[in-house]
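In the present case, backbone shapes were mapped to integers, as reproduced here:
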Amino acid sequence: MSETTSDGETPVGTTPAGTAPKRHRRGDTRQRIQDVALELFAEQGYEKTSLREIAERLEVTKAALYYHFKTKEDILVSLFQDLQRPIDELIEWAGHQPRTLDTKREILRRYSVALADVAPLFRFMQENQATVRELSVGESFKDRMLSLIDTIKEPDAALTDQVRCISALFTMHAGMFALRDVEGDPEDKRKAVLEVAIDLVTQAHAGTPGA
């Protein structure tokens, strides 16, 4: 594996597995709009939130809001792009790595960090699945999940091992949602969920011919 050492540590110059990368966004005003909109979507639902309410919470005019986003769907799409970008980069990276167990474990570690960086958005997705399915971003996210599963699942894997790989990703998704009310440090909970996901993929990989 080209980007991890033999003891599993990430070399200098790459993102450490347990460290959330800094969010790359295009300006403070745009980020504030995204954050406030997501707060309102979570508080009262996507359908019941208007651009006027977002502008009022931000204490800006609707004209100032329109400069960045014309509709609330534009805001939601931009939020999904913040999640999809690191997923696309991860899928691209995985495509150039050997299909070893170390690679698969690193894929899960990096995905765990990406999820932690956009935790509020992912909770919104879990709580508003019907809304997400109706928007264009829902279908594109589904396609990315299928591609990501393919990076950790062998094409000729036994059915039980395919289920383990699929379950590994859904464990990471469900864990973020289910554990939010459980007492404990968020980072400890993230690592616990990641450990379970890695265990599932490790079991699946053990059934790979020649592993």
